[in-house]
Amino acid sequence: MKVTIALIAVGGVLFGCGTALLLSRPLTRILLGAVLLGNGANLLVLATAGRAGKPPLLYPGTDPKDVADPLPQAMALTAIVITLALTAFLLAMAYRGWQLSGDDDVQDDVEDIRIALRAEHEGTRAELRAVLRADRVRQARAEETEDLDDEVWDHVLGADR
Amino acid sequence: MLGLIAGHFVLAACAGVFTRWWGRRAFLVLALAPAATAVWAALEWNAVAGGRVREQTWRWAPALDLEIALRLDALSLLLTVLAGGVGALVLIYCAGYFRDDEPGLGGFAGTLTAFAGAMLGLVLADDLMLLYVFWELTTVLSFLLIGHSAGRKANRRSALQALIVTTAGGLAMLVGLLLLGHAAGTDRLSVLVAHPPPAGPAVRTGIVLVLAGALSKSAIWPFSLWLPGAMAAPTPVSAYLHAAAMVKAGVYLVARLAPAFAAVAPFKALTVGLGIATMLLGGWRSLREYDLKRILAYGTVSQLGFLTALVGTGTRDAALAGITLLLAHALFKAALFLVVGAVDQAAGTRDIRRLSGQARALPLLCAFATLAAASMTGLPPFLTFAAKEAAFAALAPLPLTLVVAGSALTVAYTLRFWWGAFGPGERAAEAVRPGGSGPQAPGAAAAAAADGAAPPTGRPAAKNEFARVGGWEKTAPVGALALAGLVLGPYVGRLEPLLARYAGTVQEGTEAPYHLALWHGWSTPLALSIAAWAAGAALFAASTPLIRLARKTALPTAEAAFARTVRGTEWFALQLTGTVQRGSLAVYLTTALLVFTGAESYALAHDTPWHTPGGTPRLADDAAQAAVALAVMAAALLCVTARLRMKAVVLAGTTGYGTGVLFVLQGAPDLALTQFTVETASIVVFVLVLRRLPSRFPRTAPRRRRVNYAVGAAAGALVAVLTYLTAAARQAADARDALVEATEHDGVKNVVATILVDLRAWDTMGESAVLAVAAVGVTSLLFLRRRAGALPRAGDGDEPGTVWRAGPREAAGPESLAPERTWLAAGGTLAEERRSVVFEVLARLTFHPILVLSLYLLFCAENLPGGGFTAGLVAGLALVVRYLAGGRYELAAAAPLDAGFLLGAGMVVSVGTGLGGLLFGGAVLDAGTYHTHLPVFGKIHLASPVLFDFGVYLLVLGVVLDVLRGLGAKIDQQIEREQGRTGPEGGEAA
């Protein structure tokens, strides 16, 4: 099939710009990225229909051979309306984010950061736990001997190491 | 058979209620299920021994060829008797063992009964998948039973350990069963065994995997670590699951497969080699334990090794010995476990260094325990003696030597057990003697902890005031099991027909088959038995130095290795997650896109699908298209770099309108119309929100920006190239002609609208629902608490009455700039400085024409560009105009409807049309038309797609209204509240 470069080029550029916007932090930009990406995708779908044609309206005198392929059009139509719903929803989210935090940036996931930090400090954790366990053992031993004066002597002589 | 299995589960489901009604006595009712099983099996005994096989099949999903197939043959019958009989006795014992106020008693009782059912299903299953299901069911139920007192860490650890080990084995077994089943072309166990597939790599792999499951279930080395840990379970559970029933499942599977696969290479090596190794290791290990239950646990491990070795040998006589011993072992080991439970409850400890005088305290139990212990050592005239004689007669010299050594160990630990439980307790003195050779720690728990093992030693002796001896419920089952082992010895000949029925399938046509009997004359096996008793007694006599030796030579246990493995897995998972999952959406997206583009580019470079049958592409269809395309590209690129929010939005809108123009040029007026209306609505919505957000985007780090641009460029280029290649490679004609023909056939003219409401009406309906959900999402994000009802109108309650003030009221100046006449319903509510006569007049003049236009677009959609979506958006734009011209009271006046009502009505209409199609046309969304003649209008033609489209129209209108209410009116209110100028002075304007 003969392809129209112009449509594909526009679609590609819109797609690329949309992607670049999607990768940034402010939710508004992400949303604009989604809008551009949606337009680009619709154009690309339409581009697969081939050559421009007459509108697919079957009035007398219209030769069905001249009509543009209606299938991609029907595919793209609902996508356009969904884009509007997406826009409204993401904007509401951006607004809510602004209400809560003062900007509409997408924040890093706190739980993920915690996991990463835990992975980094795993060694320290083991050390601390060992220290705590030693502490507990010492306490248990002190309780077992039930030496009430022990604590007093600790002040005089210093505690066991 | 199916009924019996189901009966168990039904009773298990009722267990909670029963325990609430009758307390611990509920166990007696629950025991009915396994008791019925045992009775049924006993009634079948002679028939099955005579060679009859009972089968039952229930095809529950014939279309998928799935069925529940059960089969009762000699081997199944023996295990059914065991599972049912021991199960019933253990449940009776439970009635004496537990207290009425035991926490979680109902759940425990139910789980134990369900386990009995699962065990029954396991031994009766003839279908490979069914076998696996019951197998894993026993694993899970065992996990729940071990973790009965989940409050203690040791219990949780043991339960998890058992679960991990046996489930890992079970999964391996699943793969093995599938391999074997595939190789044999059947999923029936009986067929698989009767017609085994020829040995090949797949079959050998399958055997190894199935054995991994079987051996892990039966706690054979190197999987034996979980069984001693499982002693954390209440003693009845140990008696049933970990001595009589569940651990026998592995032996059962080995015995089941032995007739078919004993001759195939790794089968015998694995079962006999590992079995005998386990027998020796387990026996040796049990010599250095002090906890009665752990002595028995290692003894069980040892005996399971023996059993596996016997049934895996693959000769008739060894198989006969194996299943005889299997029966005998279940009887004496369950009895001994139950005795331990009673002793533990009576004395408050299971540590043999602290027990003394139990023979006097529990004389009857002591007698039964003596019987069971004698049976364990294999003394005549017990059943075990007959089994062991058979085993010694059946084995080859090398395994025989090792097995005799293992039997000596068995004798030693049995003596140790009996002496520890009921002896005078001399060891207690030795253990606590300061400076002695025994362990230093004074308490039993501490001793076990020093051993590095789980301390399941029960209550310390200090709490002895809670000790209970228990009634007949505890003694009777022990007696029944112990006496059965004694009585069956002399009558072993009566058992032989059934046992030999199975053994005969292992090896056919044996000359001079071995017969079970207590007395075979003065023979080698008898001599070996005597040697084993003597050696065992000697070992016991020398036990003090031996224990010391055993403790010194103790290798790092499998438990420690297991714990390290688990810890290592967790560490690795943590490090991997911590490295890979950094929490930034942008990073994730970049990664995903880079992988996508990289992989696709590699595929493109590798496969070079560059040939284009369509010939050279054309640059553009016409000059206008090229010009618009260039403009859209420029706007898109500028949009990416724009730092002002509003500028970016306007540029994005420009690309949207440009896209619409391209649609027009391409010959897609429907798309263009929708695109224009959507773009307009979007820009309005953007502006409504952007008035609250900062005017500039925050600065992005240059490096990050460059990465974003690069990834975006790569993704865009790749998608463009892919689209080009797919479109250019296309050779088939498009679907246009068929669609055009279908539309002409319907007598309408707009092909796209026909597709939407007819051919892909399902999609349209689903997408309308998406729209509704999005609208609900918007409102719930903004109206945090309540969204019901229409918007407040001017003059309602404490509404301020004036909206959109530019500044403080005084700033407006003394002379009012406002027009004197209002053109809109609520025009007076707008702050004076915001009013514009031109806009008001225009809004007034255009509102109704736009609404009429929207209806026109809706109803002419069959023949002209338009349709529900477009029409709904156009009507929504009319509301937008009213809102922009007159504020939120104006919106309320223009649309006194609840947006939620519109959404719901729209959904009801379109879904209702769809269902109507089902009702009248036979399929959901089936289109129908109705022709009639009205006096004034003339010929009328009503089509159900139009009604469907009307639903979409209402819904889209509701969405726009909802968005306006949320992002417009609600934000207005919030702004006013923040400015703190909601006061009574607003009321005058109303």
From TrEMBL, chain A:
Give the GO cellular component terms, alphabetically: plasma membrane
Keywords assigned by UniProt, alphabetized? Cell membrane, Membrane, Transmembrane, Transmembrane helix
Q: What is this protein called?
A: Multisubunit sodium/proton antiporter, MrpC subunit
Query: Transmembrane stretches, by residue range?
Result: 6-23, 30-53, 73-95
User: What's the protein's topology in the membrane?
Assistant: Multi-pass membrane protein
**Family annotation (PROSITE patterns):** PROKAR_LIPOPROTEIN
Instruction: Write down the Pfam families for this protein, in alphabetical order.
Output: Oxidored_q2
Automatic annotation (TrEMBL), chain B:
* Compositionally skewed regions (Low complexity) per UniProt: 439-461
**Residue ranges constituting the NADH:quinone oxidoreductase/Mrp antiporter transmembrane domain according to the UniProt record:** 125-405
Name the GO terms of the biological process aspect: monoatomic ion transport
Q: Where does the record place the MrpA C-terminal/MbhD domain?
A: 631-694
Q: What are the start and end residues of every segment in region (Disordered)?
A: 429-462
| InterPro entries with a match to the protein in the record | CPA3_Na-H_Antiporter_A, MnhB, MrpA_C/MbhD, MrpA_C/MbhE, ND/Mrp_TM, Nuo/plastoQ_OxRdtase_6_NuoJ, Proton_antipo_N
Which top-rank group of organisms is this from?
A: Bacteria
Supply the alphabetized keyword list.
Antiport, Cell membrane, Ion transport, Membrane, Transmembrane, Transmembrane helix, Transport
**PANTHER family given for it?**
NA(+)/H(+) ANTIPORTER SUBUNIT (PTHR43373), NA(+)_H(+) ANTIPORTER SUBUNIT A (PTHR43373:SF1)
> What name appears for this protein in its UniProt entry?
Multisubunit sodium/proton antiporter, MrpA subunit /multisubunit sodium/proton antiporter, MrpB subunit
Give the organism, scientific name: Actinacidiphila alni
